[in-house]
Structure formats: C-alpha cells, structure tokens
Amino acid sequence: MLGEPELPDLEAGDGRLFVCDRDGRYRVLPGVNGLSLMEILRAAELPVAATCGGAAACGTCHVYVGAEHLGVLGPISEPEQWQLDHLMHARDNSRLACQILWQEALFDGLTVELAPLE
Ligand code: FES
Hints:
The protein is of the alpha+beta class.
C-alpha cells in the first residue's frame, strides 16, 4: 500500500500543474518539489492506481505530457521505455508519472492528461 503524501496549498510556491482527468475535466494542482508526479496525482485523489509503487513496472500511472514540457522532463529510462512499449494507448508524448520527479524550476505550468485505463 502506498503512503499518501500531503498536498500543500497552491501558495506553497512549488509551481502549478494542470491535469486533465479521464472525463476531460481540468484541475490545477500544486507541484511539490521532491515528490514524483504520480505521488502528486495520488495525493489529489486522482485515479492513478500505481500498483507497483513507482517502480516503472505496472504502467498504471501512464500520462500524456503537454508538448511544451516534453523536452525538460529528462530522458526515458530503459524500464520506463519497456513499459511504454507495452501500453496499448501509448503515444509519442506518453510518460510514466512515477518516473518524473517534480522540479518547480523546470515544470511550472506542466499540463498532463491521464491516459485511458488499459
Ligand atoms: S506506478 Fe507503476 S509504472 Fe508508475
């Protein structure tokens, strides 16, 4: 069972994240330096199962990343690429949210969309 990190107020100063859920609704969340994107999404009670706990082994944290931030998220590791290669709904802008560690200086304004369930 994953622990649930606390989500601070938007005024916390760690940047903002725009999330489109699977029903097409947008939410604005505070970024939290030091947490993964998966942990931030789960803390906001978005439906991200993260059954592997962030080990890039389940694909249930699959998101589509806005084009403007694709280049700053860092390289895709071999285990992440393997998972992405095996996801039915993968696109060119797919990433695993558990593999993205929030960095306000780079990610402020990041837009992500929860990928459909596999
Ligand atoms: S939490 Fe399992 S792949 Fe991201």
